[in-house]
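Predict the structure of LLM class flavin-dependent oxidoreductase.
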Amino acid sequence: MSFDIGVYHFGELTADPVTGARKSPAERFDELIEQAVLADEVGLSVFAVGEHHRSDFAVSAPAVVLAAMAARTTQIRLSSAVTVLSSDDPVRVFEQFATLDNLSHGRAELIVGRGSYTESFPLFGYDLAGYGDLFEEKLDLLMAIQASNPLTWSGRLRPALHNADVAPRAFEDRTLPVWVGVGGTPASAVRAATRGLPMALGILGGRVDGFAPIVDLYREAGARAGHTPEQLRVSVNGPGFVAKTSQAAIEISYPSFAQGMRENFHERGQGVHMPRRAYEASASPAGALFIGSPAEIVDKILRQHEAYGHERYIMQLGFGNTPHRETLEAIELLGTEVLPQVRAALAGVTTDDAA
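Done. Here is the predicted structure for LLM class flavin-dependent oxidoreductase.
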């Protein structure tokens, strides 16, 4: 099978755990573009950036950052991770990502979600009481925009559209890939499944194979709604880091991860303390964090694939303020060692045979 591996980044502006220094947004953007270029060169499938609306994150406009990457890359797909659709306008979201799709000649994707960080709701004038209803209606509108143009549509939570011309369309009028970000709640999985949309499952903790019931529920609900297995694709997304050895991966990533958990958590000033012992436990073969050598990352992906049967794994790199040089090295290892070994294993051949 063709298994995809990619990278996503939130563009954190976390303090250096040793010096206390912080990168500027411009410095972070330069690094993100360099990382995307390398990911493209080593054959990774997707580079994605998250969306936040507060000063400890650089990226509030993913489509703009991805457009800069599009100008410097040729093959890699470019995605949000996630677009907080509940507090955005689906018309504008479609226009922005269709523009990106044309700039990149058909490489744009969207992961849409309700948003685990909620600062965008009061910023853009939305009531958190409508957290779920807003997402459902806006997701349906986004898919209606995708399906037909011009569009006449009406809902409960925004003004109706009458013969609306939404432009540009996606590159060569293709269907713009839209994944639904799911954090592990059954209702979210069913929401994606009943609409026949692929699920991007965010796994931040627990066991490496602990979300099998959610994946099974997603596929069962999708099948009951009449959707094909080809429509019901699954991506696993979560924090990780890869270095030449397991010990190096821990030593490089832990200080920044712990700092990020303290600084960049959902509610500012209410961070979480992550003891090193707990970090190492989460990075163990049974844990959900993908921290280790290339061989260990390959083993975890394959173990997870046995449980989930998923088609894509996207690793969140740069958590906190992981050093840029080491992040580049991790991207290279993902592309040159992890990806070919995973694909060979799933195809039932050795890496020597696949070469």
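Residues 17 and 259 are 6 Å apart (CA to CA).
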